[in-house]
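Kindly go through the entry underneath: sequence plus fold tokens. Please state briefly how this chain folds according to its tokens.
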Amino acid sequence: MALNVTITGKFKKLWKYYLLQSLLAAGALFILILILDKDKMVVISAMGATSFIVFAMPTAVSAQTKNVIGGHLVGLASGAIFYFTALPYLLEYPCAVGIAIFLMVALDVEHPPAAGTALAVVINEVSPAVFVTIMTSALILSQCRYYLRHHLKDLV
């Protein structure tokens, strides 16, 4: 069976934005990696998904500043709660994600990558450095979207 690959009309029309916004996302993550300690890369892995939302779907609800920052705060809190429990990891990890999802929806700060933040925190560590790392990353990415909002297009 041959794979039929076609370039969509939207891509043909907006190819410069596809290229520019992908480069902006890569550049923002490059800056974060320069600023942050190499040991924290697993903890901010959810920022890759946040970058996608911010730069490929800038008008989406989940790309709004309150959702990016609020969602990651909820993810941090959920991960921290279960990091300090004595539950087996088979329960801790899914509970951290489940509580993060519940709180994001209840508090109206839905940001799907923040569920990954909850999981990364419960797996790795809870410390002031992790808090600063994640919140700095979320703030930088959300501010990139805010200041570039008149130049970014929805690509999906």
User: Anything to note?
Assistant: Residues 25 and 51 are 6 Å apart (CA to CA). The two ends are 27 Å apart (CA to CA). The chain is about 70% helix and 0% strand. Helices lie at 9-35, 46-56, 65-83, 89-107, 113-123, 128-148.
